[in-house]
Amino acid sequence: MADSAASQLNQEDDIERLQDQVNLLEQEAQKISNKLSNDGFVSRAPAAKIEAEKQRLEKCQNLAQHYRERILSIVRG
Questions:
Q1: Where is the Valyl-tRNA synthetase tRNA-binding arm domain positioned along the sequence (predicted)?
Q2: What is the 3-state composition of the chain as percent helix, strand, coil, each rounded to the nearest 5?
Q3: Is the pLDDT of residue 1 over 60?
């Protein structure tokens, strides 16, 4: 029984940690998205910078999705 309780706590800790990461990644993705939506930024920034920001956005979104899937796999057991 103690092992089951410890396992449950570990799972809850993992879910909380992963959700914190998802939240941070979503915040970062929103900042990047706002930057890319800013006509002033897009008109002045070099194409390489814009492409780098797009790649950062995609990376944040993909990693957040990966963490969400891990949370679901923990919840489903």
A1: 13-71
A2: 95, 0, 5
A3: no
Asked whether 46 and 15 are in contact (CB, 8 A), the reply is: no
Question: How crowded is residue 32: how many other Cβ atoms within 10 Å of its Cβ?
Answer: 20
Within a 10 A sphere around the Cβ of 23, how many other Cβ atoms? Answer: 12
pLDDT in tens, 22-67: 999 999 999 999 999 999 999 999 999 999 999 999 999 999 999 9
The pTM (predicted TM-score) of the whole model is: 0.85
Domain ranges of the chain: 2-76
Q: Which CATH code is given to the segment(s) 2-76?
A: 1.10.287
Give the mean pLDDT of 13-25: 97
Residue that has been written with the tokens 């979503």 in this structure: 26
